[in-house]
Amino acid sequence: METLFTWLWPAVSVLLAILLLWALRRRPQATARPQPSQLVEMEDALKELYKLQRNETFVEAGALAQAMGISVEMAEHLMETLVAFAWAEGNASAGIRLTTRGQERAQELIRVHRLWERYLVDREGMSLDAVHVEAHRREHETSPDEAAKLDAELGHPAWCPHGYAIPDPGRRVPPPAGVPLATCTPGARLRILDVDDEPPALLAQLVAMGLKPGAEVEVIECRPGHLRVQINGNIFPLAVAAAKRIHAVPAPVLPVPLGELPVSSRAVVTEVKGGGKQQRRMLDMGLVPGAEVTVIRTAPLGDPVEYRIKGTAIAMRRSDANSILVEEVRNG
Fold this sequence. Notes:
By secondary structure, this protein is an alpha+beta fold. Helices cover 39% and strands 22% of the residues. It starts with a helix and ends with a strand.
């Protein structure tokens, strides 16, 4: 009997160990890397949540479903997955918000997407309405090191071809500058800053009409459901739903370099000259088209000059300030 026990016990121990390992492998792991297709869905949801969180602390499933064009049930599932993956906190029924880790990943995805769009237009000659799908594919496959090399190769661009800002790594993605074209009044002369890259069919139509970043447009008439706009001498009807996807600022009449304004002057930024890291630095300070800036004071020797932008005081050398074109706001 003792011999049988001595032989049987090691066999039972091995069997128990195998069963334990099998059970552990079957247990869901909150931080386990998802399948590639699931990861793309998660990261797409992450980007939409990042945009939605600009207006709300917690985002509910209905808002995410509408933004992504999916069912509420699918949105709830994605929200639960993001929470399990530590990219968000909260719950699907009450709403979730991104964790710091989730915000950082969303910022990197948006940044890389815009870099690829810049590359595809500038280096591969793709049309503005064709780059979104390819950039979307590449963004999910690009490592941080590859993104850094791409950024350097492109010369650290500050804007994607659709007019959206490209921040430095780890920096917050700023919201669109300007105001939606749909909110502008008849007679307004405007310069387009950015045009939404989705849906591609709508973007193709807008580009064919000449409605793209940098173009100047005049609002002729506003009616329920649509506008009439003039661009390059042609008048087009434009649905309000489409006009909401275009951001613009008043077209400058007499832009001047910011560094030439006297103390106490107020002005609106119309354009940021230069390129690469120079524009990125201005972007970080909030000096984007449509932003209001006030000249506060000058140093005793006349340089640097202190400005107020979005409630924050910043100092700049005149040579840097002169790369920013503004239109002065007259009092009264």
